[in-house]
Design a protein that fits this description.
five-stranded antiparallel β-sheet, eight-stranded mixed β-sheet, globular, 7 helices, single chain, alpha/beta
């Protein structure tokens, strides 16, 4: 499905719009609504699967396009589809490496998920908040679209092993997690597959690198060093500051 790229604005979620893992501040919601009223088509692009985006948005912006799993899932007009998944051979090789480093992981299918990590890991607070899915065994997932390692004896070495296998790997050192996606899948690549070439973007982490690099107007939220020199604007990771920047974009469009 091709979506018009006119006046498109793309928002990452965690660390960009959402700072507690569960909700979006009312000031940010109001600012995004102002963008929509000014004529912007909204896209929310996240490392979360679509299942875990819905509770955070809490019914807001039902016309928005959703990109989940760092580009492996898309939802247009409420229809979720997997656009990238690990093939059986690559997944088998990744599981061999995961076993070698005694990894605990969260594996996402198109909707349901499998989890083998610690029972008290913080990531579980962000998984299936809306109780929309089932936790199943890995073999019961019809496809694996994202593989997030939450615990390993050598996470950096496991991340490098994934890259050698040709996967897209984002190692979040500050959170001690690494997410693996099939092939060259990322948020920007998913946007391009939808025909979106010109857009404005807000992001905060290394998985937003290509998204921000290719944006017409790029805003970095926070000061992640991996995004140095990529964004034209940097704002503090604070709801008031983010809302102000979104309103500035909305006002520029309306002018």
């Amino acid at each position: 499905m091709i979506i018009s790229s006119a006046r498109t604005t793309v928002f990452d979620i965690d660390g960009t719009l959402c700072f507690d893992g569960r909700t979006i501040d009312r000031r940010i919601l109001a600012a995004v609504e102002a963008c929509e009223r000014a004529g912007h088509r909204l896209v929310f692009a996240s490392a979360r699967p679509v299942r875990d985006l819905l509770p955070v948005l809490d019914g807001a912006f039902p016309a928005a396009t959703l990109i989940g799993g760092n580009g492996s899932l898309v939802s247009v007009d409420g229809r979720v589809r997997a656009r990238a998944a690990f093939d059986a051979g690559d997944l088998g090789k990744l599981l061999v490496e995961a076993e070698r480093f005694r990894a605990g992981y969260l594996a996402d299918g198109p909707w349901d998920y499998a989890y083998t990590g610690p029972a008290d890991h913080p990531i579980l607070g962000r998984v299936d908040q809306g109780r929309l899915a089932r936790r199943v065994g890995l073999a019961d997932l019809p496809a694996v679209v994202k593989f997030l390692v939450v615990d390993a004896t050598d996470l950096a070495a496991l991340a490098e092993a994934g890259r050698v296998l040709g996967m897209t790997v984002n190692h979040h050192v500050d959170e001690s997690i690494a997410d693996f996606a099939p092939g060259a899948t990322n948020k920007w690549e998913a946007l391009a597959s939808l025909g979106i070439e010109e857009y404005d973007a807000f992001g905060n982490d290394v998985n937003d690198l290509d998204l921000l690099r290719n944006a017409r107007h790029a805003v970095r939220v926070g000061a992640h060093p991996g995004l140095d020199g990529v964004a034209g604007v940097t704002v503090a990771p604070d709801p008031a500051a983010v809302a102000e920047e979104i309103l500035r974009l909305a006002a520029a469009t309306a002018a």
